[in-house]
Amino acid sequence: NYGLTVSIGVEGVGHGEDLYFFWNSTFTQTAKLLFPNFKLILRRMVRLLSNFVKYKKPIIKPDALFQNLEWPKFDSKDLLYLKIDSNLEVLSDMRDYSAKRTVYNKHIQKPISVY
Asked: Coiled-coil intervals in this record (predicted)?
C-alpha cells in the first residue's frame, strides 16, 4: 500500500493504487528508487494488462516473469485469485468471502431489488 488507502484485513495495494504501475508520475519515479521490488511488479502489471488487452488472457503461456504460474480461472466456489507481489501466489477466498456469502444467502429475501 503506497498511498493513504486503509483496508482492514487486506494487505497490498488499495483500490486505484495499481494505476501508479501504468502511468509515469513523480511517485513512480520515486518508488523505483525506494522499493527494490517495484520494477519487477511494474513489469508484471504492464505485461498482465497488455496480454489481457491483446489476447483476452493475462498470462498466455508459461513465463519466468510470472514464475511459470497460470492465471487462475474464476470459479465462484473456490474464489481463486493471483496475489501479485515479489513472489506470485495463487490464493483462495480472500477475506473469508465464502462465510459472508453463506450468511447473505441465509438471510436474503427475494425478490432482490437494486436501485
From this structure: none
